[in-house]
Amino acid sequence: MAKNSQFVCNACGAVHSKWSGRCDACGAWNTITEETVSTGPKGKSLGPAKGRSIPLSNLSTQDAPLQRTHSGLEELDRVLGGGLVPSSAILVGGDPGIGKSTLLLQAAAAFARRGAKALYVTGEEAAAQVRMRGQRLGLADAPLLLAAETNLRNILTTLDNERPTVAIIDSIQTMWSDHVESAPGSVSQVRACAHELTSFAKRKGISVVLVGHVTKEGQIAGPRVVEHMVDTVLYFEGERGHHFRILRAVKNRFGPADEIGVFEMTGSGLKEVANPSALFLSERDHPAPGSVVFAGIEGTRPLLMEIQALVAPSSLASPRRTVVGWDSARLSMILAVLEARAGLGFGAMDVYLNIAGGLRISEPAADLAVAAAILSSRQDHAIAPDTVVFGEISLSGALRPVTQADARLREAAKLGFSAAFGPQGLKTLEQNSLQLHTFMDLNAFIQSVFGAIET
Predict the structure, then answer these.
(1) What distance in Å separates the CA atoms of residue 214 and residue 397, rounded to the nearest whole number?
(2) Is residue 96 annotated as involved in ligand binding?
(3) Is 99 marked as a binding-site residue?
(4) Considering the entire predicted model, what is its pTM?
(5) What digits encode the pLDDT tens for the residues 283-317?
């Protein structure tokens, strides 16, 4: 076979005929590397004798229900969709030092304690280092199998001999296959190793968990095709300054996407948080201008969180717009609507927005809570601490209804909140003392909550 060279972008996986400093597909700089590929004779077809006829079925075929394996970690099982599915491939990504290895070591020990055969393969540490961490976390009594190896051929042979229920590979960027002529961590190696491990999991009925590094943009390093190969993609998120950690499913073939699990980092490892709303709101001692409680939905879970805003006079020609945990473009839209529809200008003011606890919000239902926090800070008017706010703001200034409003109100009532601000159409829950204040548009909300505001 002839061997040719091709140039592949490490960020998006695009293939180029020659090297350049900038990828034309994704626009990233200095991400194109050279790889050697083998090509067969051109124009030669496989022919019908090369394959076999595959069995076919229809949609009415009755399949056996999935037998999920439970880890005993309720937050992990929730994110996986109710437990670990046999023959599944899972990719877990997160920032360095965020706790991926700690989480998966605890998960592997939990599986082993419940009778499942679990195998943990590390390519980044020595086996003694993993044992030391396991002893510090109180996992020494778990019947967990441990290995330190980076050669993919040796790992597959070991998995075939041991046949564990779940195998954890930490990490996919350190694995190397001897039939690929490139360095470990390159696009070709990551793609080839992920493909071999995923195919092996499907053939042998073993659940494989792959740990992936992330880039500075927060995406899993390597080609995006790896995310398409696996069944589930999980991101382990959190801020270094906070002790909260969020395990978020961004893809799941066996459960709901965007489901989250909440953990707390402690000296003895990661602890599950059964009631994250109460934990995220635990630091709200007294009402303060610019602080608003938003009733959100993460996956299937209602979650209350605090939105903090600060509006201050600016001496700059272009005032600052700093956002942590929310979309900066969405903030610009809210400020534009406040100026165009309510006549409130922010052209000479810096605006800072923060989602407390290191959370990240993506749903548009937070629009009204963000607007309320900004106005509360601008007017130095604190909103009652027992009030939750949610609703989507359209470009016309109208308030639009949101999904799963009942679940949001039920979570607020459970935590002792007595009032809720939202769009029209909300209904009072039975046996609930929560007072609802609904509004048709943004101007009606401003008049009711803040009164007349000088522009």
Answers:
(1) 38
(2) yes
(3) yes
(4) 0.80
(5) 666 778 999 999 999 888 899 999 999 999 998 88
